[in-house]
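Submission checklist for the structure archive. All mandatory fields must be present; incomplete records are returned to the submitter.

[x] Identifier: Choline/ethanolamine transporter FLVCR1
[x] Organism: Mauremys mutica
[x] Residue count: 523
[x] Sequence attached
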Amino acid sequence: MAGDGAEEEDEEGEMLAGPPPQPNGFLPGKEAERGSPAAGADAGALPEAQAMLPAPGSGSGPGAARAPIRLSWRRLAVLAVFSLYSLVNAFQWIQYSILSSVFVRFYRASYTRVDWLSLVYMVAYVPLILPATWLLDTRGLRLTALLGSGLNCLGAWLKCASVRQELYPLTLLAQTVCAVAQVFILGLPSRIAAVWFGPKEVSTACAVAVLGNQLGTAIGFLLPPVLVPNTVDDIDLMGHNISIMFYGTAAVSTLLFLLTGVVFDEKPKFPPSQAQAVLQDIPPEDYSYKQSIINLFRNIPFVLLLISYGMMTGAFYSVSTLLNQMIVTHYPGEEVNAGRIGLTLVVAGMVGSIICGLWLDYTKTYKQTTLIVYILSFVGMTIFTFTLDIGNLVIVFVTGGVLGFFMTGYLPLGFEFAAEITYPESEGTSSGLLNASAQIFGILFTLVQGKLITDYDPRAGNLFLCAWMFVGIILTALIKSDLRRHTVNSGILNTDIKAVPVDSPTDHEKNNTVLKNQSESAM
């Protein structure tokens, strides 16, 4: 990674350039109003960097200056703070379900009511994702980050006031506030990576941002069973231990909220990539959120990814929520080991996420990698299903780790693949829709799998998930790989390039053919 002020080297040569892709729900006709290089026949033969970028002010032409491409050291602080408050939000999601037997006893509630303390994260996400992505696209990254971190902090403090046996409604309200915070968190990894990081590190940055959420889940599997042992005969001690966990979480959340206000900026001073340079010069008044949504749902490869991503991630949410029940069914009294198995699953997935992110940055083989990881996740789920009840916890640890490596490692792949095939639409919108799909499938899978576990056994519930994951493999195989963002970034730097004006529909058609060929060769 280069430091601040380390400007990327310009490459010699020219490129056959068509008009820039229609960006971010870009409203038709605005090009001519702005006098962009693609708007008229007098654009002239421009270098690709100038042809792709709208000119400053209202002018255009050969004199238009190219925006400098630089990387800022601040991007590392933004990524670190986001990853940490995302971690705390994920920790608050899983802390109830991994202690389900404890909270059933403490709040004198049924397992179904305790399960809803996790399900509320999924339920809240679905109706709020479109307003949240609208806010991200129209009001920006900083306000969205502050809302996510602030609501996370508020929910943590409300939990501190709910440590009494009759206050289950208050702890549900507190968890609902944290669930709303999640809406402003889950869609940010690909947006932060695209806005702050260069093309050679964007997938790795996205993986690290997702990793923060995964690490929070891992700590949520490990720490709560240690802090709050199941002291069945001493409710007062149980309440005291729950208070320690809640107050510790609130203190950390408060610190991270303050750091978010200090560290987060809307965007770096200079764009980190040519793809961002194209988008950052588009005037805000030319943006249509409604048109952006329409564009996404007309994009068939994205719709296929939307469904397949929802199936995979929904299966992961279901397994995470019901893991305690599955383990305790076959291994009574092993709540602590259930948490450790969950930790193994997520830590292995964190390693998988980083490896997948590095691999994508190196190879740009988005579809191939996504499909292979999906198939291996299905294989891992099948092995986990048939080894869960053999009576050997060591085997469960191993199979859980294999499952987690691929299933959790898939998460950043979906974000980055979506960003590629939907460019120049907003990364926040595409990833937000992916997460909404995951929440919907997660709710359905958790309810159905939980019912199957209760009425039959964990194997029946896991086979149900395996069947849907197999369908997801088929849908992933049908996705057409059109790496639009990569075409813009790599096309600028190719040496065998030539610029021509776009004077007529014939020229426009020819240019589209050239860009399409470049996209196919980039794969």
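[x] Structure attached
Curator remark: Confidence is low (pLDDT under 50) at residues 1-23, 26-64, 492-516, 518-523. Residues 300-330 form the longest helix (31 residues).
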